[in-house]
């Protein structure tokens, strides 16, 4: 039996070198996939230069966008007018007796450049400005802010890019918005020279957990050849059902894995579940034991998906992957034809070692790692 788990934040994510926070942000970003091999190597070796690269690309993209006019959008207005425009609000018009005053209440759309997208781009310049030291980049950001202010475009740190549709002319906006999202992610609180001290708050832990998960996914998608590997992030896993009752589908929950990697040649599958706590806890009999709930979760991912018509599911490997500080664990065991792996990535190491350790961990389960897109 395990004792109630104590707070383990101090042992896992409390002190991470700033350069390795940048490294995780690099791996997690869409920008990482678009970089050339030499540029990726340079940034992996010096991840603190990521902010400089992002600033340069952002300023270039915004300047080009301003040269050919910002994208427009429709904004809804409700106003009392002297003529009909758009849709008439009959109830308000009658209630306020506007017709007797020669006016009518209307709802209409008007074309504007003060859109959520442009406000998001404008706000990114302010966030970026506070993090830069290069005088040339600072001046370019100030010019961008002046232009947006002159155009009477506000600021917004929220933008639902998933609802946006991009045509051929909007591809530049898509790249620019990718840079903006990365800029907001890099605005880490309590920034100091040297190391970061993350406050022991659930919000901060969730932020790092999400970042760590995205970083592992981005790292795999960039370093594994899509010709030889199938990589799925956030894949839904469903229970294999026999003789279901009429309403069971409305109540039975599905599962969502963090990362599934499959080697086409080996016909073997790896299911990775990332965590952001200590890899071990304390029991009544041992000072350090792996956490039962995490093992049960991974066990469910593996055994619930076994299907004779899907051969890789019958001997799939499961991995629990944790960020750690000054701790390296790589243990494995086979349970009911499935290998279970318990691994940590030491985020206190040099960025080159972090990359090497990730490749080593991910290559041990497959028959060969020769199809990795090595870029060093």
Question: Could you name the key traits of this structure?
Answer:
376 residues, Trna Endonuclease, Chain: A, domain 1, 3 domains, six-stranded mixed sheet, disordered N terminus
What does this structure look like?
This is 5-methylcytosine-specific restriction endonuclease system specificity protein McrC. InterPro entries: McrC (IPR019292), McrC_bac (IPR014407). The strands form 5 sheets. A 6-stranded mixed β-sheet has the order 6-9-10-13-15-14, with helices on both faces. It has helices at 9-12, 18-28, 30-34, 37-45, 50-67, 90-95, 116-129, 135-150, 171-185, 202-223, 248-251, 292-303, 351-363; strands at 15-17, 73-81, 87-88, 104-112, 195-197, 229-233, 236-237, 255-256, 259-263, 268-274, 280-281, 289-290, 317-324, 330-335, 338-346. It is of the alpha+beta class. The longest helix is centred in the middle third of the chain and has 22 residues, at 202-223. The protein starts with 8 loop residues before the first helix and ends in a 13-residue tail after the last helix. Helix 7 packs across helix 9 (171-185). It contains 13 helices and 15 strands. The model is unreliable at 1-14, 189-203 and 368-372 (pLDDT under 50). The radius of gyration is 26 Å and the shape is globular. The protein has 3 domains: 13-71 and 115-185, no CATH class; 73-112, no CATH class; 199-241 and 254-363, Trna Endonuclease, Chain: A, domain 1.
């Amino acid at each position: 039996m395990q004792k109630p788990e104590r707070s383990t934040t101090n042992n896992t994510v409390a002190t991470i070198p700033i350069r390795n926070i940048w490294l995780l942000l690099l791996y997690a970003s869409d920008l990482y996939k678009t970089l050339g091999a030499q540029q990726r190597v340079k940034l992996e070796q010096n991840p603190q230069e990521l902010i400089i690269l992002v600033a340069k690309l952002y300023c270039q993209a915004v300047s080009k966008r301003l040269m050919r006019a910002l994208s427009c959008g429709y904004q809804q207005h409700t106003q009392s007018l002297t003529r009909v425009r758009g849709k008439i609000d009959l109830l308000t018009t009658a209630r306020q007796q506007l017709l007797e005053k020669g006016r009518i209440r209307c709802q209409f759309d008007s074309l504007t450049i003060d859109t959520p997208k442009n406000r998001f781009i404008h706000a990114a310049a302010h966030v970026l400005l506070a993090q830069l030291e290069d005088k040339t980049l600072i001046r370019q950001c100030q010019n961008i802010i002046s232009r947006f202010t002159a155009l009477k475009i506000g600021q917004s740190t929220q933008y639902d890019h998933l609802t946006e549709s991009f045509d051929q002319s909007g591809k530049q906006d898509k790249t620019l918005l990718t840079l903006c999202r990365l800029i907001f992610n890099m605005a880490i609180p309590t920034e100091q020279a040297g190391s970061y001290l993350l406050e022991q708050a659930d919000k901060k832990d969730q932020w790092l957990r999400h970042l760590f998960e995205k970083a592992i996914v981005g790292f795999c998608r960039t370093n594994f050849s899509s010709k030889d590997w199938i990589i799925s992030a956030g894949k839904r896993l469903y229970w294999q059902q026999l003789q279901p009752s009429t309403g069971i589908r409305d109540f039975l929950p599905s599962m969502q894995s963090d990362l599934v990697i499959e080697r086409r040649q080996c016909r073997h599958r790896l299911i990775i579940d990332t965590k952001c706590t200590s890899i071990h806890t304390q029991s009544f009999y041992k000072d350090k034991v792996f956490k039962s709930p995490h093992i049960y979760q991974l066990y469910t991912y593996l055994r619930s998906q076994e299907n004779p018509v899907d051969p890789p599911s019958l001997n799939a490997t499961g991995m629990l992957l944790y960020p750690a500080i000054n701790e390296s664990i790589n243990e494995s065991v086979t349970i009911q034809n499935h290998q279970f792996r318990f691994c940590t990535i030491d985020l206190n190491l040099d960025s080159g070692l972090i990359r090497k350790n990730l490749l080593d961990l991910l290559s041990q389960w497959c028959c060969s790692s020769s199809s990795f897109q090595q870029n060093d």
